[in-house]
Amino acid sequence: MAGLTDLLVREGQLWLAIFTVDTLRYFAGVGAVVFVLFVVARRWSERRRIQARRATNGDVRREIIWSLNTTAVYALVGLFTVRVEQSGYSQIYLSVSEWGWWYTALSLPLVLIAHDAYFYWVHRAMHHPVLFKRFHRLHHLSRTPTSWAAYSFAPGEAVLMALFMPIIVVLLPLHVSVIFAFLAIMIVRNAMGHCGVEFHPHWWVDTPLDALTTPTHHDLHHQKFNGNYGLYFTWWDRWMGTEFPGYKADFKRAATAEESSQTVAETSG
């Protein structure tokens, strides 16, 4: 019995450590985006808001509470991932020399591409009427999302999102630094996608850079629900015909708002 108690204590301590790191990553990533857009560049951001409607304090409170619930779930899956690694099933490596610099550098974009595909199909599946209410409805309570909604998931969705990590470390050799870089990019990109401000230049969607999603791309998903499912890239939405037809027009409307307001000000002056 004492052995079981010791095991539970060790597992609890490890869970708490992972939960603490994940929670700090959430607040650091989201906080950085919020600070830059709404403190440093507040006046500029106000002119480039995608929606006229504003999120309420209650919306933000709900988003943070459920995001903390998500980091708790992520920590459970993280605990499982640690055990997978300790059992010898994962391909995590510590020395770059094991796979070389070229592969280690290339593995970061590879894991982002893999995650984008995983996210698209899991996200789209959660919009099926049978799954939506239990898995994804809570996230869509944020009709006008803020960056704090980055992890605002129901427990079932949090599990599905977190499972990518134990799957990818079994399938793909990944250096620990690549894993940390991926996790940092994931939260920052998620916070950017929910920020409600179109900070990209107006010409963005007329260049090859249009392969990358923008805040408008994901904001339209929150407004209209059935479309624009991608996380990092627009590829899957375009291949599968799920990108909203008016996306580029809506993007340019938000991205040129600052220019329009400046023109009006100059004319008035």
UniProtKB/TrEMBL annotation:
An example Gene Ontology molecular-function term: iron ion binding
Sorted UniProt keywords: Membrane, Transmembrane, Transmembrane helix
Localization terms from the record: Membrane
GO annotation, biological process: lipid biosynthetic process
Domain Fatty acid hydroxylase intervals: 110-242
PANTHER family in alphabetical order: STEROL DESATURASE
Protein name according to UniProt: Sterol desaturase/sphingolipid hydroxylase (Fatty acid hydroxylase superfamily)
